[in-house]
Amino acid sequence: MRIAAAALAVALLSGCMIGNGHICGPQTPMVYCNKAAYQRLANPPSLMENWQHPSRAPQARQLDWVSCGGTEKGSYAVVSGTTGAETAARSGEKFDQIQRCMMGKKYQYTGTCQGEIPSRFPACQRADDALPAR
Predict the structure, then answer these.
(1) For residue 51, how many other CB atoms are within 10 A of its CB?
(2) Which helix (H) or strand (E) holds 36?
(3) Average pLDDT score over residue span 12-29
Protein backbone atom coordinates (compact mmCIF):
# COMPACT_ATOMS: atom_id res chain seq x y z
CA MET A 1 0.00 0.00 0.00
CA ARG A 2 2.92 2.36 0.77
CA ILE A 3 4.33 1.75 -2.72
CA ALA A 4 1.04 2.73 -4.35
CA ALA A 5 0.84 5.90 -2.26
CA ALA A 6 4.45 6.76 -3.12
CA ALA A 7 3.79 6.19 -6.84
CA LEU A 8 0.75 8.45 -6.62
CA ALA A 9 2.77 11.16 -4.88
CA VAL A 10 5.50 10.98 -7.53
CA ALA A 11 2.91 11.12 -10.31
CA LEU A 12 1.20 14.16 -8.81
CA LEU A 13 4.45 16.01 -8.12
CA SER A 14 5.70 15.41 -11.66
CA GLY A 15 2.66 17.00 -13.29
CA CYS A 16 1.06 13.66 -14.03
CA MET A 17 -2.47 12.63 -13.23
CA ILE A 18 -4.39 9.39 -13.19
CA GLY A 19 -7.38 9.16 -15.46
CA ASN A 20 -9.27 6.46 -17.29
CA GLY A 21 -6.99 3.81 -15.83
CA HIS A 22 -3.80 5.46 -17.13
CA ILE A 23 -1.12 7.62 -15.59
CA CYS A 24 -1.26 10.68 -17.79
CA GLY A 25 1.60 13.11 -18.14
CA PRO A 26 2.05 16.33 -20.06
CA GLN A 27 2.90 14.44 -23.27
CA THR A 28 0.11 11.84 -23.03
CA PRO A 29 -2.76 12.46 -25.45
CA MET A 30 -5.74 13.50 -23.35
CA VAL A 31 -8.00 11.04 -25.16
CA TYR A 32 -6.34 8.30 -23.10
CA CYS A 33 -7.13 10.13 -19.87
CA ASN A 34 -10.63 11.40 -20.63
CA LYS A 35 -13.09 8.50 -20.36
CA ALA A 36 -15.78 10.06 -22.58
CA ALA A 37 -13.26 10.98 -25.30
CA TYR A 38 -11.71 7.51 -25.12
CA GLN A 39 -15.13 5.83 -25.47
CA ARG A 40 -15.94 7.97 -28.55
CA LEU A 41 -12.60 6.97 -30.09
CA ALA A 42 -12.84 3.28 -29.15
CA ASN A 43 -16.54 2.93 -30.08
CA PRO A 44 -17.35 5.49 -32.77
CA PRO A 45 -21.01 5.87 -33.77
CA SER A 46 -22.10 4.23 -36.99
CA LEU A 47 -22.59 6.39 -40.07
CA MET A 48 -26.34 5.85 -39.72
CA GLU A 49 -26.34 7.42 -36.25
CA ASN A 50 -25.42 10.78 -37.81
CA TRP A 51 -28.94 11.09 -39.23
CA GLN A 52 -32.02 12.30 -37.33
CA HIS A 53 -35.58 12.70 -38.52
CA PRO A 54 -37.76 15.40 -36.97
CA SER A 55 -40.85 13.17 -36.68
CA ARG A 56 -39.90 9.53 -37.20
CA ALA A 57 -38.95 7.14 -34.41
CA PRO A 58 -35.25 6.26 -34.15
CA GLN A 59 -36.12 2.60 -34.90
CA ALA A 60 -37.33 3.62 -38.38
CA ARG A 61 -33.92 5.08 -39.18
CA GLN A 62 -32.35 1.64 -39.64
CA LEU A 63 -35.07 0.59 -42.10
CA ASP A 64 -34.63 3.82 -44.03
CA TRP A 65 -30.83 3.49 -43.99
CA VAL A 66 -31.02 -0.05 -45.40
CA SER A 67 -33.58 0.97 -48.02
CA CYS A 68 -31.14 3.70 -49.11
CA GLY A 69 -28.37 1.12 -49.63
CA GLY A 70 -26.69 0.95 -46.24
CA THR A 71 -26.04 -2.11 -44.11
CA GLU A 72 -28.07 -3.16 -41.07
CA LYS A 73 -25.14 -2.28 -38.81
CA GLY A 74 -25.20 1.35 -39.95
CA SER A 75 -22.38 1.38 -42.49
CA TYR A 76 -22.29 0.57 -46.19
CA ALA A 77 -20.58 -2.08 -48.26
CA VAL A 78 -17.47 -1.11 -50.19
CA VAL A 79 -17.92 -1.32 -53.96
CA SER A 80 -14.99 -3.11 -55.60
CA GLY A 81 -13.15 -1.70 -58.57
CA THR A 82 -10.20 -2.86 -60.66
CA THR A 83 -7.81 -0.51 -58.81
CA GLY A 84 -7.68 0.95 -55.32
CA ALA A 85 -8.53 4.39 -56.69
CA GLU A 86 -11.53 3.00 -58.58
CA THR A 87 -12.74 1.16 -55.47
CA ALA A 88 -12.45 4.37 -53.44
CA ALA A 89 -14.31 6.38 -56.10
CA ARG A 90 -17.13 3.82 -56.42
CA SER A 91 -17.47 3.49 -52.66
CA GLY A 92 -17.55 7.27 -52.27
CA GLU A 93 -20.27 7.52 -54.91
CA LYS A 94 -22.30 4.90 -53.04
CA PHE A 95 -21.96 6.80 -49.76
CA ASP A 96 -23.00 10.02 -51.52
CA GLN A 97 -26.05 8.20 -52.96
CA ILE A 98 -27.02 6.98 -49.47
CA GLN A 99 -26.75 10.53 -48.11
CA ARG A 100 -28.92 11.93 -50.91
CA CYS A 101 -31.49 9.19 -50.27
CA MET A 102 -31.60 9.96 -46.54
CA MET A 103 -32.01 13.67 -47.28
CA GLY A 104 -34.82 12.76 -49.70
CA LYS A 105 -36.54 11.03 -46.77
CA LYS A 106 -36.24 14.33 -44.83
CA TYR A 107 -33.47 13.18 -42.48
CA GLN A 108 -31.08 15.80 -41.19
CA TYR A 109 -27.34 15.14 -41.00
CA THR A 110 -25.99 15.74 -37.49
CA GLY A 111 -22.39 14.64 -38.08
CA THR A 112 -19.43 16.90 -38.63
CA CYS A 113 -18.79 18.88 -41.80
CA GLN A 114 -15.32 19.89 -40.62
CA GLY A 115 -12.36 18.53 -42.55
CA GLU A 116 -11.35 17.98 -46.13
CA ILE A 117 -13.46 14.87 -46.74
CA PRO A 118 -16.64 15.61 -44.72
CA SER A 119 -16.86 19.12 -46.17
CA ARG A 120 -17.53 17.50 -49.56
CA PHE A 121 -20.38 15.27 -48.33
CA PRO A 122 -23.71 15.98 -50.07
CA ALA A 123 -25.21 16.36 -46.59
CA CYS A 124 -22.78 19.22 -45.91
CA GLN A 125 -23.64 21.17 -49.05
CA ARG A 126 -26.29 23.86 -49.44
CA ALA A 127 -27.90 25.19 -52.58
CA ASP A 128 -25.53 28.17 -52.45
CA ASP A 129 -22.56 25.77 -51.97
CA ALA A 130 -21.94 27.10 -48.45
CA LEU A 131 -21.23 24.69 -45.64
CA PRO A 132 -23.69 24.44 -42.75
CA ALA A 133 -22.25 25.47 -39.40
CA ARG A 134 -21.25 22.14 -37.78
Answers:
(1) 25
(2) helix 35-42
(3) 61
